[in-house]
Amino acid sequence: MAKYYIIKIESVISAFTFSEAGRVTTFEWNFPFPQGIAVGDSLLGFLMDPINEVRFYLKVHAVNPNSLILTKEFEVSKGVGISCFDANTRTTLLNHTNEIFEIQPDTFSAVLNQLITQLHPLLSVSQNLNNALSQEYLNKLKRDYNIILAGAPGTGKTHEMQQVYDGFTNHFLVTFHQSYSYEEFVEGIKPIIDDNTSAGSNSNSNQEPIQYEYHKGVFYDACELAAQKAGYASLVACLADSKQGRISRFIQGRVEPVILCIDEINRANVSSVFGELISLIEPSKRLCGKNEMIVKLPYSGKEFGVPPNLYLIGTMNTADRSIQLLDSALRRRFVFKEFFPDDTTIGITEAQSILKAINSRIRVLLDKDHQIGHAYFINAQNSYDVYRTMIDKVIPLLQEYFYDDTNKVRQVLNEMGTDETHYFYVKDTDATEAYKKLGLNDDEQGFYSLKENLDDLSQSEAISMLSHIYTN
Questions:
Q1: Which tens digits make up the pLDDT trace of 240-293?
Q2: Do residues 164 and 267 both lie within one domain?
Q3: What is the enclosing helix (H) or strand (E) of 56?
Q4: Stated pTM of the model
């Protein structure tokens, strides 16, 4: 497991050495260091008096018997002061020199985020966001770039994504479906249709042959806008620039962010839709990244790369497909934020009790990915509304979950008793009798079906159908 440290140094002017490219910095530490430090551990570089600020983010590249080789991930001109640390850490920083000491991960993360705020292009416009939730996601996206909101149906994933979407000025929205393709998302070809072109009329020998043009998809458009926010005329112009030129515009210029929201991301064939983008959306392989990657698109042959100020948020219904069943390449490139049913958001106490009881049984009989979300009951104003939600939405969903296995649905509804007066499911005597006549007599075998008059019950009768779900 990676560890986190502060390295306190007097001066780095003569200690850092640059590669031929002038961008990769290495630092050799010849002073004592903690015994457990290892390759891949992270460090905050603290410059001593009179600066007394964290200015660097470093990684351990190699551990030698008497020295460490560190690589500088980035440096800021105005760093983070000692006031952000606790009293013990402040004392250590002020009283010791040339020392490395371990700190807690949450402290390290908080300071690192402040450093990124000084550096990252997304944060320069954070004050212009339209709501607090967008600001919260801003801080996540600056670190993760690609986020999927995953959870059971009705847990508020799309609602939250929409709020974030509305908070950004430069935004795109698309919904994936089974027929969605790479050609719609990135780039494809489409016929040119005009007044002289009509489908099915190619029998006319004098008609001009149908012509096609390259069509840019929503992802290409988002990348184009992201490049334009850095002052380029187009994505092509951005790619024609040198890497150092792009860094000066995207990183040092602090351009506005662009957000692409993808609803129901797992309903499409994600590997097919994303194509080579699976690699390009990685933070390190984006333009200006450490391992910047530029590819040629298969249709137009144009060069293509993903700007660092483009961020992706997707939603995923885990009842359709578990996170574990997603393509491993996609899982590795997205950070997942999981959503769960929240009965506290429901105004009707009885609905809260029903939701809690139903979901506890679903977790036992199925799994957590198929729970019922609070959104199903969010608009209920009274107990009768709760009843209507049960018969119109919840019970049909349970039937789908359990493939019409009525015994499982009855277990979820707590209807395994003998008094069926207030049950949604009652014994189907005709089917049971037919079963016996077929010579398949089994005293334990029973057939059940929904009551036929559920829509015709009075409000008082309907309300009486609810309490058994959440009581023993």
A1: 999 888 988 887 667 889 999 999 998 888 888 988 888 899 988 999 988 999
A2: yes
A3: strand 53-63
A4: 0.69
For the chain, how many structural domains are there in total? 3
CA–CA distance, 401 with 397 (Å, rounded to integer): 6
Residues 226 and 80 in one domain: no
Q: Tens of pLDDT along 159-199?
A: 999 988 888 889 999 999 999 999 999 999 888 776 655 55
Domain boundary among 312, 339, 366: 339
Strand bridging mode 68-81 / 53-63: antiparallel
Two tokens at 410? 């009855």
Instruction: For residues 310 and 358, state if they share a domain.
Output: no
In this predicted structure, what is the pLDDT of residue 118? 64
Give me the residues of the chain with pLDDT under 50, please. Answer: 14-15, 18-23, 121-128
* 109 within 8 A of 142, measured Cβ to Cβ: no
**321 and 356, same domain (yes or no):** no
Tell me the Cα Rg of the chain. Answer: 30
Per-residue burial over 348-370, b = 16 or more CB atoms within 10 Å of its CB, e = otherwise: bebbbbbbebbbebbeeebeebb
Range of the domain at 148: 132-196+210-339
Looking at the fold, whether 155 and 231 belong to one and the same domain comes out as: yes
Whether 116 maps to a domain, the answer reads no
How far apart (Å, rounded) are the C-alpha atoms in residues 116 and 85? 17
110, 144 Cβ separation under 8 angstroms? no
Furthest-apart CA atoms within the chain: distance in Å: 95
Is position 121 within any domain?
Answer: no
The 42-47 sheet, strands edge to edge = 16-18, 25-29, 68-81, 53-63, 42-47, 4-9, 99-102
